[in-house]
């Protein structure tokens, strides 16, 4: 099967004709860079199947055993009618919480279902909801878990500053015995797909992706009332955020202006401001966004939302006590440069390692021919 390149520069990726038939096991399905409202360049050519590397939802490797849930042939998930995106976001969060708590892994590990919703929201292929749903729903357990790892790897490769903030969402994917969670993970995945996670977050236009905050609804639905009270966590209703944005930003701000939210949760106020800027004919990517949040899981959700909502490259998500550390955002901003340098160094080493492997493979050819 042809593949879609995860690291292509295009915002919209054409769907090969073979996508509809799926004649053989799923291959690498990958996607464009982090969402950005700027016009997208032309897509890269689709690689030939023979040159296709292992990747997102690739065939399971025998050395990595998996607990396989029986999968009906060509499983189809019919999404529910979305209607009002904000109502749909709330229904999605509540349905995910109900599914997770009903599974054997429900309860204290709310990072796992939040991570699943976040990864689906970050899924880099935009505008091909039916195809992405089919690929994910027909993946084996190993492919599903590996696919989630690759979504976060792709996010880190393009936005290491925000990817580092998403660390609380990634840990479970590297734990021993992660395959034992596959049944619960699949149930949450199917629930999120059925309740329209890709319809809410999979549009190529960040305007449409900014209609709701699925991360807020998911986190608040999974946490008990007592836990929210103990943490003092109360996410501002979106209607209130919209009103505050309209009242605060009466005139178009100059490019480069900075929006700062000292207790931002998952970024609901940023969503409202970004949409308000778009209503004024402005691009949110032309501004700076700085958010502080005490709860690591909510801060991770804000980092996810910054990409989904297309806030652009100038986003700083800090995690800590704003009252105790007034310079938290500034220090986090200074750390961004180091994170990008670290990313570049790691990718450079990987490129060298790959080049060495290719050179060794080429060197083995004449040696093998002489032996024959």
What does this structure look like?
This protein is mostly helical and 372 residues long. Helix content is 50%, strand content 4%. The protein has 2 domains: 62-222, no CATH class; 232-331, Rossmann fold, CATH 3.40.50. The chain has 15 helices and 3 strands. The chain is globular and about 70 Å long. The relative contact order is 0.12.
What are the SSEs and their pairings?
Elements: H1 85-102, H2 111-122, H3 129-137, H4 141-158, H5 160-165, H6 167-170, H7 182-194, H8 197-201, H9 206-209, H10 214-222, H11 225-231, H12 238-248, E1 258-261, H13 268-279, E2 288-293, H14 296-308, E3 315-319, H15 328-371
Parallel strand pairs: 1-2, 2-3
Helix pairs in contact: 1-7, 1-10, 2-4, 2-7, 2-10, 2-14, 4-7, 12-13
List descriptors.
372 residues, mainly alpha, Rossmann fold, 2 domains, 15 helices, disordered N terminus
Indicate the low-confidence ranges by residue numbers: 1-73
Structural class: mainly alpha
Average pLDDT figure:
78
Strand content: under 5%
Enumerate how many helices there are, as a single number.
15
Oligomer designation = single chain
Q: H/E series, N to C?
A: HHHHHHHHHHHHEHEHEH
The main sheet orders its strands as 1-2-3
């Amino acid at each position: 099967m042809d593949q879609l390149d995860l690291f292509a520069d295009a915002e919209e990726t054409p769907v090969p004709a073979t996508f509809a038939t799926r004649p053989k096991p799923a291959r690498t399905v990958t996607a464009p860079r982090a969402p950005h409202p700027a016009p997208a360049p032309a897509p890269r050519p689709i690689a030939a199947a023979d040159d296709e590397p292992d990747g997102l939802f690739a065939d399971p490797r025998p050395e990595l055993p998996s607990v396989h849930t029986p999968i009906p042939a060509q499983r189809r998930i019919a999404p529910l009618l979305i209607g009002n995106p904000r109502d749909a976001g709330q229904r999605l969060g509540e349905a995910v919480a109900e599914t997770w708590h009903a599974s054997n892994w429900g309860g204290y590990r709310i990072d796992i279902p939040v991570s699943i919703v976040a990864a689906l929201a970050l899924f880099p292929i935009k505008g091909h909801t039916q195809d992405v749903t089919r690929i994910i729903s027909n993946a084996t357990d190993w492919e599903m878990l590996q696919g989630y790892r690759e979504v976060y790897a792709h996010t880190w490769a393009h936005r290491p500053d925000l990817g580092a903030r998403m660390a609380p969402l990634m840990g479970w994917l590297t734990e021993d015995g992660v395959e034992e969670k596959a049944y619960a993970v699949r149930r949450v995945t199917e629930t999120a797909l059925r309740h329209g996670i890709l319809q809410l977050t999979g549009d190529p236009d960040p305007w449409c992706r900014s209609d709701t905050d699925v991360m807020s609804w998911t986190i608040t639905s999974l946490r008990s009332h007592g836990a929210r009270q103990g943490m003092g966590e109360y996410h501002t209703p979106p209607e209130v955020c919209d009103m505050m944005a309209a009242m605060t930003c009466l005139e178009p701000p100059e490019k480069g202006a900075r929006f700062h939210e000292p207790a931002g949760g998952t970024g609901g106020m940023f969503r409202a401001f970004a949409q308000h800027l778009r209503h004024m004919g402005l691009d949110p990517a032309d501004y700076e966004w700085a958010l502080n949040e005490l709860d690591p899981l909510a801060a991770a959700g804000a980092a996810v939302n910054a990409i989904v909502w297309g806030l652009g490259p100038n986003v700083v998500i800090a995690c800590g006590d704003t009252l105790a550390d007034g310079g938290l955002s500034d220090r986090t901003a200074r750390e961004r440069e180091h994170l990008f340098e670290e990313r570049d160094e790691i990718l450079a080493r990987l490129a060298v390692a790959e080049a060495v492997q290719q050179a060794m493979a080429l060197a083995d050819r004449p040696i093998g021919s002489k032996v024959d």
